[in-house]
């Protein structure tokens, strides 16, 4: 797999001393071992509540080229909202996926790593034991990041998609167990100003937790409205404080929800990242596509190649989160990002090493 990513956002790097420990678990040098500019292989792993994702890349000019990747839905957070702990079945699914990631990292001889875990490992009572078992069975030492770091990495990964002619964006990242919202703006008094984080929030609701509570397979207009209302209660305080003066701004969404929505909107026979990443949707497009999904049965959603059985019981929960955000921030356009935390981690590490030509 080869995929070039260019960077034009100008956001500054963030310290991450945990990278050394993460890399040490695989017997490889970590953050303390800088690489010559343009050299080396970097790996970024994101173990989320729903997905396990890996991106391996090499710096090229002012961006990077992806040389390998992996993504699998593992539902690590399945049942945590009711039991408080990660189940044995979920642990086994995670370890199977992480073992593949380890093999890819070693095969590509990646020397600079960041291996993170998010909401499921923040919330579960047995998270520490899970991390120890992952290290023992795969050699991977996970770094459990806080919500602010998660929001910052999402911004770093997605900010190149902010409209260059606009003032900024309301970025959202709908995860399995949490959702992050960030207001990003450029300084209007500064020419060619880089976008900066003005405010952020994280709510403890994602597609897995919402679908488990309200039901994800047989969603009625009534249960859908209840999901929207539940999310709206969490979003309202942030919107009240930071939802004013939205001129020349747009929504910027990164998640399986928005990429799936875009794929269905475009009537793709199968999901194609090249056609999704960066695509614009207006309010009418979004509303029509959500209405279309609400009109489908669970089986019809499962049979759609852009949704599949893996997301068929989660996609409407994600749409409910999106609708709550749209209601709170009534912007006319949404830009879809098939990028996020992994890209943010890669950019951060490469910048720290001076490996990007435009970022030294």
UniProtKB/TrEMBL annotation:
Residues 63-351 form the Ppx/GppA phosphatase N-terminal domain. It comes from the Bacteria. GO terms for molecular function: pyrophosphatase activity. Residues 1-12 have a biased composition (Basic and acidic residues). Residues 1-23 are annotated as: Disordered. SUPFAM superfamilies: Actin-like ATPase domain (SSF53067). This is Ppx/GppA phosphatase. It comes from Bradyrhizobium canariense.
């Amino acid at each position: 797999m080869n995929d070039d990513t260019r960077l034009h956002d100008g956001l500054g790097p963030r310290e991450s001393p945990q990278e050394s420990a993460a890399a040490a678990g695989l017997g490889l040098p970590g953050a303390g071992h800088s690489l010559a500019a343009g050299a080396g292989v970097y790996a970024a792993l994101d173990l989320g509540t729903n997905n396990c994702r890996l991106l391996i890349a090499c710096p090229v000019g002012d961006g990077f080229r992806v040389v390998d990747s992996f993504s699998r839905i593992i539902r690590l957070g399945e049942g945590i909202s009711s039991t408080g702990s990660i189940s044995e079945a979920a642990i086994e699914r995670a370890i199977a996926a992480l073992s593949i990631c380890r093999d890819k990292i070693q095969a590509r001889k990646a020397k600079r790593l960041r291996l993170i875990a998010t909401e499921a490992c923040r919330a579960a009572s047995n998270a520490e034991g899970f991390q120890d078992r992952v290290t023992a069975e795969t050699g991977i030492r996970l770094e459990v990041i806080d919500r602010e770091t998660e929001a910052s990495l999402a911004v770093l990964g997605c900010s190149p998609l902010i409209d260059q002619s606009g003032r900024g964006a309301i970025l959202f990242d709908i995860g399995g167990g949490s959702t992050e919202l960030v207001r990003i703006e450029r300084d209007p008094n500064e020419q060619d100003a880089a976008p900066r984080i003005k405010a952020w929030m994280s709510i403890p609701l994602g597609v897995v937790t919402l679908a488990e509570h309200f039901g994800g397979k047989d969603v009625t207009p009534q249960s859908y409205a209840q999901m929207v209302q539940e999310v709206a209660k969490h979003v309202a305080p942030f919107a009240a404080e930071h939802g004013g003066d939205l001129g020349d701004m747009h929504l910027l969404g990164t998640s399986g929800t928005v990429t799936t929505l875009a794929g269905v909107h475009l009537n793709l026979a199968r999901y194609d990242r090249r056609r999704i990443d960066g695509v614009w949707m207006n309010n009418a497009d979004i509303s029509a596509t959500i209405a279309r999904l609400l009109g489908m049965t669970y089986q019809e959603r499962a049979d759609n190649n852009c949704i599949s059985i893996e997301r068929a019981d989660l996609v409407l929960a994600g749409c409910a989160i999106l609708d709550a955000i749209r209601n709170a921030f009534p912007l006319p356009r949404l830009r879809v990002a098939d990028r996020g935390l992994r890209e943010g981690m890669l950019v951060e590490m490469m910048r720290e090493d001076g490996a990007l030509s435009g970022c030294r």
